[in-house]
Amino acid sequence: MGFISDALNRIQPSATIAATQKARDLKALGRDVISLAAGEPDFDTPDNIKEAAIKAIREGKTKYTAVDGIPELKAAICAKFKRENNLDYGPQQAFVAPGGKPIIFNAMVATLNPGDEVIIPAPYWVSYPDIVLLAGGKPVPVETTLEDGFKLQPEALEKAITEKTKWLIFNSPSNPSGAAYSHDELKKLTDVLMKHPHVWILTDDMYEHLTYDGFKFATPAEVEPGLYERTLTMNGVSKAYAMTGWRIGYCAGPEPLIKAMTKVQSQSTSNPTSISQYAAVEALNGPQDFIPERAEVFKERRDLVVSMLNQASGLKCPTPEGAFYVYPSCAGCIGKQTTDGKVIETDEDFAMALIEAEGISVVHGAAFGLSPFFRISYATSTEELTDACERIQRFCASLR
Ligand SMILES: Cc1ncc(COP(=O)(O)O)c(C=O)c1O
């Protein structure tokens, strides 16, 4: 296909979106399907945030804004970083984009040259390597293990760094594993990074507010102020405020990088939607008390899912610290046969056989760079989760 660019041919369509779509298609055909593939909270956007958007529309705040965000939102972002992360940023260091994903995209397009390497701990969020590839860089996945709680180890980080390394993309709590790094675990990694001044850190803190059992969130520039000058701290309203459809992500970092990202955005999307920006101001400045309440609901669901999956034969599911995902191993099912005689050779075979047999949609681990595992999103009702986990148990018990 000569017409399509080499850059596009290097990447895959998002496997999580594909799995969600397959579940939708089967549902449309009348199948009884439960999708555990989607990466969004099942809660609604709080009313005060919706009202702020309606007010913005009524007041005619419906025109182009500054490419990198309205001053009110930048001020709210700086206040958030100070209040919650003890990080000092001025408005010229803050940047708003149409979602968290474009923040990563803008940062990579703004900085990568051919051959530049980007270290990505695996399992990783599906978009990281593909964004790096699209931007002309080279993703360098570094595998973690279930035994280490899917957390990057300092020795593995040290080994992966070369003179071509430009970035480490760091994500805690993690999509897809739910793993979150404590202050001390993070300090061991930042100690390694301090030895390599040419390596920058993009920290994706999207799931900051979704941690459980009293876990205390920490972010690299807070843990090691010596990294402040080469850290891009990224976050967004999508997950914490149940605003995935509003498309607002934000970050703060060194001014020259922010300027470069603004240049990219000025020639691509331009400003994020004006109305969503006003809604995001209310999200960051308004009441925050619903966040821990929702986190408590997620924690109960996590405990339910972990317990039920560990009762399924052939599965092993660790208890993650955060996000709304679990990442169980299906190693014990590999090599077995389904009732209609198909041999399960990979985690993709497992996911495919599971949706065919029981109508449960999950995403296979290969999509996240670590097999044989699969990802379950527990951002759905307790009733559906119980039903889904019973079906998974039945499916695993049926394998021979
Ligand atoms: C780890 C992580 N980072 C970033 C994003 C992107 O968020 P947004 O929807 O704001 O683009 C997601 C969404 O699934 C995510 O899981």
Would you give an account of this structure?
The protein is of the alpha/beta class and 400 residues long. It is 40% helix and 12% strand. It has helices spanning 6-9, 15-28, 47-58, 71-85, 100-111, 127-134, 154-160, 183-194, 220-223, 255-266, 274-285, 290-310, 347-358, 382-398, and strands at residues 34-35, 94-97, 117-122, 138-143, 165-171, 200-204, 231-236, 249-252, 325-326, 360-361, 363-364, 374-377. The strands form 3 sheets. It has a 7-stranded mixed beta sheet with strand order 2-8-7-6-5-3-4, with helices on both faces. The protein has a 3-stranded antiparallel beta sheet with strand order 9-12-11. A two-stranded parallel ribbon has the order 1-10. Helix 9 (220-223) links the parallel strand 6 and strand 7. The termini are far apart. The model has no long low-confidence stretch (mean pLDDT 96). It binds pyridoxal-5'-phosphate. Pyridoxal-5'-phosphate (PLP) is lined by residues 39, 99-101, 125, 171, 175, 204, 206, 236, 238, 244, 249.
Summarize the structure.
This protein has 400 residues and is of the alpha/beta class. It contains 14 helices and twelve strands.
**Largest sheet geometry:** 7 strands, mixed
Give the names of the bound compounds. Answer: pyridoxal-5'-phosphate
**How many β-strand stretches?**
12
Low-confidence stretches: none
Per the principal axes of the C-alpha atoms, what is the gross shape? globular
Mean pLDDT figure:
96
Helical fraction:
40-55%
Please tell me how large the radius of gyration is: 21 Å
Strand order of the largest sheet: 2-8-7-6-5-3-4
Q: Structural class of the helix and strand makeup?
A: alpha/beta
Percent of residues in β-strands:
5-15%
Number of helices: 14
Distance between the termini: 43 Å
Q: Which H/E pattern describes the elements?
A: HHEHHEHEHEHEHEHEEHHHEHEEEH
